[in-house]
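Weekly modeling sync, notes
Attendees: S.R. (lead), two postdocs, one rotation student

Agenda item 3: backlog of single-chain predictions. S.R. asked that every request posted to the team notebook include the full sequence so nobody has to chase files. The rotation student volunteered to paste the first one in as an example of the format we agreed on. Action items at the bottom.

Example entry:
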Amino acid sequence: MWFLLAVFLLPIFLFNLPLKQDEAYHAFADRRCICCVPNFMDVVSNAGFLAVGIHRSVNGDGLNLFNAGIIATAFGSAYYHWYPTTARLFWDRLPMTVAFSGVFSNSLRIAQSEALAAGLLSVLHWHAYDDLGPYVVFQYGGILATAYHQPGLAVALYISAKICERFDALIFSKTNYLLSGHTCKHLLAALACATL
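Predicted structure, as returned to the notebook:
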């Protein structure tokens, strides 16, 4: 219960509410259309999540909350990146939240149902009220808590992924327009999922 309360009460103290979704977020650097697929690299790089989720489910610990979230993220993120809008971003964030819930419940030793409820409610709150506060606290607070309780390669890879996302256009230009920072984010985040 404390995790759910923290996700919804902390934004009141941390942010000048509401924390709105920036529409410029959807202007990714790599917009190439290849084989009739718009934003090709950002769409197909989600295959990494699908491969990791299926591999973990078949060869690891079955289709648990984390693995199901990773598999769903492959489809939700590909759907969003095909035509990036705030409305479609909901379908990217919702399955990611399921995957995060599996990680956070394990690393923070809280019930999966509480982590999942906090995550899903944070995405629904953002979607209904255009307020990212609880979602930001859920994702980044959960990552920081996980890094504190279980530091390791997965956390380092995920932090690297978020840095690549931030420098999307710069990475795209520095790689001679081969890979954007957002594509690198997908690949690094999939690797992080594989190492957990």
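Discussion: group reviewed the output briefly. The chain has one domain: 40-195.
Action items: rotation student to repeat for the remaining queue; S.R. to check formatting next week.
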